[in-house]
Specification:
The chain is of the alpha+beta class. The protein is built from six helices and eight strands; from the N terminus they run H-E-H-E-E-E-E-H-E-E-H-H-E-H. Strands 1, 2, 3, 4, 5, 6, 7 and 8 form an eight-stranded antiparallel beta sheet that branches.
Length: 158
């Protein structure tokens, strides 16, 4: 079913301005990286630059499957969603390229980055392990929202 067909049920596409506002107000999503089998899905804290880039901080440790898959990926996906109720939710699916931020650019990006909602365990691991700043360059975005009751419910609720 297409997004257009979903309008009948009260779901509508989000505008670019709504997408930017939504991404700026969120801090966690799900990163999808291609593999030979099923995609690798990882919950990630992120920072949005307000335009067309997200930034992640990878905790590497001795091995990092996420970093390995990111290096191999020609494209990746990132899903950010929020569901307050069954009838009030937003979903933004981003497609893009992913690459490590150069050491020369890291300091400038980290100076403006704000990542709220990072789990405490991740904060502790960051202090004990090597980290890598990664950039997700958005090449495509699809977003829908549903705010309010579906058609037919308004008159029944009155």
């Amino acid at each position: 079913m297409t997004t257009e067909a979903l309008r009948e049920f009260g779901m509508v596409p989000m505008t670019d301005e709504e997408i930017r506002g939504f991404l700026s107000s969120q801090s966690v999503g799900v990163l999808g990286l291609p593999t030979d089998g099923a995609p690798s899905m990882r919950p990630m804290s992120f920072w949005f630059d307000g335009d067309d880039r997200l930034y992640f901080l990878y905790v590497l440790g001795d091995e990092s499957r996420k970093a390995e898959l990111s290096e191999q990926a020609e494209a990746a996906r990132f899903l950010v969603y929020r569901a307050e109720t069954r009838f009030n939710w937003r979903s933004v699916l981003l497609t893009g390229t992913i690459e490590a931020v150069s050491e020369a650019d890291c300091e400038a990006v980290e100076d403006v980055m704000e990542v709220a909602g990072r789990p405490d365990a991740l904060e502790q691991a960051m202090g004990a392990s090597e980290t890598q700043l990664v950039e997700f360059h958005i090449t495509d975005r699809t977003a829908i929202k549903h705010l309010g009751l579906p058609p037919g419910f308004e008159s029944a609720a009155e």
